[in-house]
Amino acid sequence: MSQWTFTGYDASAHLVEETHGGDVAGPMGIISSVAVSAVFGLFFIIAACFSIQDFDSVLGAAATGNGMAQVFWDAFMARFGSGSGAIAMWMIVVIAAFCAGNASVTSNGRMLFAFSRDRAVPGHQLWSKVAPWNKAPVWGVWGMVLLAFILGVPMVKNITAFSAVTSIATIGLYISYGLPVVFKLLFPENFKPGPFSLGYLSVPINLIAIAWTLVISVVFCLPTIYPIAELTLNYAPVAVGIVLVGSITAWFFPFFGAYTWFTGPVIQTDDITLVEVKADTSKAGSSYSDA
Q: Per-residue pLDDT tens for 145-185?
């Protein structure tokens, strides 16, 4: 759970196009999100651990499947003799989860819109439409809501599905975070620092981030319950493998793979900037030819 809460700070990057001074505000949003999550998340986990009254009812054989709700219930029962306060406290968690869900929907809708704008996903004509009344990618937002609903349906029947989905989300997000860092280290000549930069700390932080991504990618693929059976198997590595194989196949498939038709992001800017970009590109190409 603690690692799962450290996901989603990429939302700042997805909304920079709609933010004034996004080249600085975006990185600052990511850093502040990590710092706030680290401090308050640590306080919350310490308080939750000290509030456990019966470990067996939370994670043992008698567990109900919702550990945090059980911690709240047991703590109020031990202190006040009634679990009513736990229900009221749990509503705070529900409201926080609702707000987090709204943020995720906003971020995912923007991602689907950006990929569709670049014609990189099936049905891009629909997902890239912007509603005239609010200037938002409404179809893209509802598309991601429907996909999230479909993925969440198995959780109603089996708590193992919840663990699998959170593991998949964590591994998938951190792989997506780590790949640009890996490419930045492998091809530093293609990386151009923006107004916000980590400077000489960039490489050490990049190496730590890659190492941590590798560690948690392995840890979250391990079984969480023994003995391993059909309903207790951790399906995260299966799902991540399917996504990786599907992505690689979609790119390299002969004749129809994305490498045959995808030429890069679609530039959306004013005419003056576009002319300058084209001029810089032509100049770079000329210099390369001269070299």
A: 898 888 788 777 776 777 777 777 778 888 888 888 999 99
* Predicted pLDDT of residue 254: 83
The position carrying tokens 């929907």 is 105
- List all residues 6 or more positions away from 281 whose beta carbon is below 8 Å from its beta carbon: none
Q: Determine if the peptide bond prior to 227 is cis (ω within 30°).
A: yes
CA distance 101 to 140: 15
Contact 26, 19 (CB under 8 A): yes
Longest dimension (CA), the chain: 82
SS3 116: helix
* 24: nearest Cα among 196, 192, 199, 191: 196
- For residue 273, CA distances in Å to 114, 123, 279 come to 20, 29, 10
Q: What single DSSP character describes residue 18?
A: G
Instruction: Please list the ranges in the chain whose pLDDT falls under 70.
Output: 1-9, 17, 60-65, 159, 224-225, 231, 267-291
Instruction: List strand residue ranges (DSSP E) for the chain, in order.
Output: none
Dihedral angle of Cα 8, 12, 17, 18, to the nearest 10 degrees: 100
* Verdict on whether the full-model pTM lies above 0.85: no
- In this prediction, residue 182 carries a pLDDT of 93
Contacts of 62 (CB under 8 A, 6+ apart): 54, 56
Model confidence pLDDT, tens digit, residues 245-280: 988 898 888 888 888 888 777 766 544 444 444 444
Q: How far apart (Å, rounded) are the C-alpha atoms in residues 83 and 77?
A: 5
Q: Cα separation of 141 and 138, whole Å?
A: 5
- Residues 6 or more apart in contact with residue 264 via CB below 8 angstroms: 118
- Give every CB contact of residue 3 below 8 A, 6+ residues apart in sequence: 170, 216, 220
